[in-house]
Amino acid sequence: MENIKFRYAFRTIDGRMLFYFFSINDIENGRLQEASLGLHDVTLIARDMYSHQTDMKMQEIYENDILEIEEDGSKIINVVCKFGIATRVMESGLEVDIPSFYLEKSDGFKSFPIVRNWQFTHDLNIINVIGNIYEMK
Fold first, then answer.
1. Which among 47, 53, 52, 68 is positioned nearest to 134, based on CA atoms?
2. What percentage of the chain has pLDDT greater than the value 90?
3. Residue 13 CA to its chain's centroid (Å)
4. What is the DSSP string of the chain?
5. CA atoms within 13 A on the CB side of 38
6. Residue 10 has pLDDT above 70, yes or no
7. Euclidean distance between CA atoms 96 and 93, whole angstroms
8. What predicted TM-score, i.e. pTM, was given to this entire model?
C-alpha cells in the first residue's frame, strides 16, 4: 500500500506552531488520538497531505509548503505547493481539469513540476523547501 502521510499543524495559545506527522496506518491505529491527548491549549490549523515528492535536499514536500525555484534560468521565486484542480491546456487546445498537486505562483498561476525543463533536468532537482504558509507569515 502506498505510504499516504499527513502533516498536522497546531498553533499554541502563545502563537508557537507544532507539527506532527502521521501515516494513514498511524491514524487508523490511534496514534493521532494518543498524540493529541497530550496537547492542551492548541488549535488545529491544518492537515496537509504529503505530495510523494522531495526537494533537491530530499526533504519531503507537503501541501502548503513554500518552495524556492529557479525561473527563467536565474531568477529565484517562491511558489506554494497546493492540491486541487488545475486546468491544463493541451497542445490540441483542449482544456483538461487535473486533480493533483501543483505549484502556485503569487499571481495565482498554477504549474506542474516539469520532468524535463529548460535545464534538461526535473524541476524537483532545483526546488528547495524553505518553510510553509503557517510559519512564514
1. 47
2. 31
3. 25
4. ----EEEEEEEETTS-EEEEEEEHHHHHTTHHHHHHHT--SEEEEEEEEEEEEE-TT--EEETTEEEEEEETTTEEEEEEEEEEEEEEE-TTS-EEEEEEEEEE-TTS-EEPPPSS-TTSS-GGGGEEEEEETTT--
5. 6
6. yes
7. 9
8. 0.80
